[in-house]
Design brief:
Length: about 150
C-alpha cells in the first residue's frame, strides 16, 4: 500500500451543501434560511450572551471585589527542585530558566521551602521564604537577594 492508495471509508465523507445555486439544486432561492426574519439576513443572528431580551446573566450577577493592577507575580521554585544541581553551584534566574524550572519571570523568582536539600548551593533570587532560607543554610549553602 502506498500513500496515493489511501482513501477515506465509504460513506464517511459527504458533499457540502451548495446553497444559492438555483432552484433545481433544492437549495436555491432562500438558500435554506427560511423566509425573512433576523436569521435570514446577512450578518443576522443574535450576539453571544443574548437571552431573547431578558437581562443576560453576566449583567444580572453582581460584580464583587477588584483586580489589583499593581500585583506582582513571582515564579515559584521549591527547595526540593534545587537538589538536582551539583554541589557548590551558583543558581541565578538564568540558570533556573535554562534548567526548565522557571518560565516567566515578570516580578522575579521566589524560593519556597517545600522539600529538602542535602548539599550546599548558592541561590540568587528576588525573594526567599523563611523556611527555604533555613533549609539551604542548614545544608551549608548561602542565599543572596537580588
Amino acid at each position: 500500500m502506498r500513500i496515493h492508495d489511501l482513501a477515506p471509508l465509504k460513506g464517511s465523507k459527504s458533499k457540502s451543501k451548495r446553497v444559492g445555486r438555483g432552484l433545481g439544486s433544492g437549495h436555491g432561492r432562500t438558500s435554506c434560511r427560511g423566509h425573512k426574519g433576523q436569521k435570514a439576513r446577512s450578518g443576522g443572528g443574535s450576539p453571544p450572551g443574548f437571552e431573547g431580551g431578558q437581562m443576560p446573566i453576566q449583567r444580572r450577577l453582581p460584580k464583587r471585589g477588584f483586580t489589583n493592577i499593581f500585583k506582582k507575580t513571582f515564579a515559584v521554585v521549591n527547595v526540593k527542585d534545587l537538589g538536582g544541581f551539583e554541589p557548590n553551584s551558583t543558581l541565578d534566574i538564568e540558570r533556573l530558566k535554562s534548567a526548565g524550572l522557571v518560565r516567566k519571570t515578570e516580578a522575579g523568582v521566589k524560593i519556597l521551602g517545600k522539600g529538602d536539600i542535602s548539599h550546599p548551593i548558592t541561590v540568587k533570587a528576588n525573594k526567599v521564604s523563611k523556611t527555604a532560607r533555613e533549609k539551604i543554610e542548614a545544608a551549608g549553602g548561602t542565599v543572596q537577594l537580588l
